[in-house]
Amino acid sequence: MTWHPQYRSSKYRHVFGKPATKENCYDGVPITRSVHDNPLCAANPRFIAVITECAGGGSFLVLSIHHTGKVDPHHPKVSGHRGNVLDIKWNPFDDFCIASCSEDTTVKIWDIPEHGVLKNITVPWKELQSHSRRVGLVEWHPTADNIIFSTGYDYQVLMWRLDVPEQVIKYPVRSISVHSDVVLSMSFNTDGSRLATSCKDKKIRVLDPRTGILLQETDCKAHRASKVLFIGNLKMLLSTGNSRWNHRQIALWDQEDLSTPSYSEDLDGSSGVLFPFYDPDTHMLYIAGKGDGNIRYYEISPEKPYVHYLTEYRSLLPQKGMGVMPKRGLDVCSCEVFRFYKLVTIKSLIEPLSMIVPRRSDSYQDDIYPMTAGNQPAMTADEWISGLDKDPLMMSLRPGSKLDSYVEVGLSKGPTDSTETRHSRSRPNQLIHERLDAKEENERKESHPTLLLPSTDENSSSTTYVSNGQLDSTHCSPPKTENELRQMFYKQQEEIRRLRELLNQKDVRMKQLELEIKNVKNSQATL
What we know:
mainly beta; five-stranded mixed β-sheet; 4 helices; repeat; single chain
């Protein structure tokens, strides 16, 4: 008999959950009381959005990621829907663009101002009208720009492209009609060439999202799926649902053979829906139940038994929904590998929850932060529709590295024309520089940040800027209204945050150099 060790070696075995302090939570948020089984929250490195309760119509709240503490009950909202908002998703390639779908049968794409929502937004950038019943889910394509999918209670999955001149789009690119009931979840594989769906008829389907052709379908009575998720590049699917004895269950499937699950495990007898979250960089799977206070996490491997239980985070506060921060928004100096935003309805609270790998050193850890998907599209909508498949463009999370330094060759083109037309504001993290001298110029500018100094002339309303060691005087009138004052305050907060990040990066680099010097001295002493 071969003896197998009870525990396997893993650098993520001791990952623990660290909830934010009260001051770093978002308090007083009127979270929606909708019973729809969606996450109800979305986050990116700049903003956090949450669906709120309102009388008449539908709305959601967009807060700056640093706007923690007590939230103003009269904070402006995005409130252009005539029915309850059911799902929201940030554009993975644009931190200022968010999609929402509603019971009013429409999908709307919103353009969020750079300094946040300072007044109610009621006019969307694009409005998608083709569903005949309420729309329950939206999902952005993971590699192609300006492609979004939606599905509703008319059992249709619609594919839209947004790089068109019309503000109201009534005709989708593709309508997929292979479902016999309401679609409960959608998930793309890594390059966006396959779309997996779970349906109210308890079946999982794998589709070709371009043509709508049904490729695979489950017919397993032992597992009734409610949520489905592609497992990175492992060519596997993970689903959560119920067993025939009504126990909550997770199941792992081969992407090419959905006849029977490769692995299944009963968790408990609770009734809340299980939300799966997968991190393809660390191969960690997180399972959070609606109405639960705990979050289980596992490690996925390509060999049997595939799923390896690690531990779980426990809390007395039940979550109604969960938002997830993209990897590029994590605090790598504290070894944070995942971050949730728990919606705690009983306290009107959004609680950030960081998953931490315990390390003694506070320097950057290369082994737990491999290259991750960046915020640049790998191709245009035309290229993807024509049949081209590309993996996501990867970026490094090392402090001080450029967000636009991608590993793939052939990324010398900048943003698409539609993006440039729609957003005229400056976004340094979305520009791709071709020449080495341009990169060196940016590094020189970052090493001499712009400082705002008051003018010494009492009769002048000009403001003096210090940039790259030189003074530049430009006209800047004082704020005249409350909105202008608030906007200036947010600008200063953003500048302070950027300078703090720059100082932290310099501190980390100094510690690394000190350690290298110490190692050199020790090696010389041994000689």
